[in-house]
Amino acid sequence: MKRSAVLITLIVLLVFVEIKGFKWIPGVKGEELLFFPSGKFVQGITSGFDNLFADFIWIETGVYYGKHRMSDRSYHYLYHILEVLTDLDPQFIPAYTLGSMLLSDDAKRIDLGIKLLDKGLYKNPTYWEIPFTKGFIYYLYTKDYKEASKWFLISSYKENSPEIALKFATWTLSLGKGVEVTLRLYLQLYNMSASKIFREKAIKGIMKVLRDQAMKFQRDKGYYPKSLSDMVERGYLPFIPKIDAGQFKIEEGKILYEQFD
Fold first, then answer.
1. What pLDDT score does 55 carry?
2. Helix, strand, coil shares of the chain as percentages rounded to 5?
């Protein structure tokens, strides 16, 4: 009986927050009302239930992102949503890692992605995933390999950090390893998260590397490679990237990703 009363209270509280606690933003549709809470208001009424409200906002973050990804690809309030979420639950690691990737890649706001990660580093100094993601963003989006190497090295010092973090710290400073490092980074991105969005971005990144190298092969040899093995044998790929959900291949002059049933 007590549990039911708590659930009913929480539902009522959520409805109250939706109606009273979220601001109307001029020029946006009414259904986006949920995404713009007054931070002080939310923290003032969620005492004891911060994590629950953080989960609620995380779900709404996905709704917001998905809606704009399918329409105008404009994510003006994404950082604000993630800021409120991580105020409520500072230990919600995916909000920092995936959130910074969405800000850097989709919203084209690398500065805000780094800012969110810096907040995560301050709140969660022992997690390897946050500095690793920061190194990833510096490597892929700013091409600042020295800074990327620094953050991969910091990540490698953390407890439970994968061995490859230290290798990335070395590889990112070495010449001639650009393709290998990029492929391995995307594979690590794929493996480090169960998030569908993270994995889709990793697959997309791997596909881009394979296409770029196949085009380079064609320019050099005068014909399109017949297989990925052909590219490896002739030095255009360091290895054939493999993931558990599918395979990459060349078919009819195109790089394809085939998902396993």
1. 81
2. 65, 5, 30
Query: Coil, strand, or helix at residue 31?
Result: helix
The answer, as to whether pTM is greater than 0.85, is no
Q: 145 with 181: CB under 8 angstroms? A: no
Q: Look at residues 156, 150, 83, 153 and name the one whose alpha carbon lies nearest to residue 123.
A: 83
- List the chain residues with pLDDT less than 70: 1-50, 175-176
Say if CB 249 and CB 227 are below 8 A apart: yes
Q: Are 101 and 137 in contact (CB under 8 A)?
A: yes
Q: How many CB atoms lie within 10 A of CB 248?
A: 18
- Reported as type and span, the H/E element at residue 49 is none
Which residues have C-beta within 8 Å of that of residue 188, sequence separation ≥ 6?
Answer: 132, 162, 164, 168
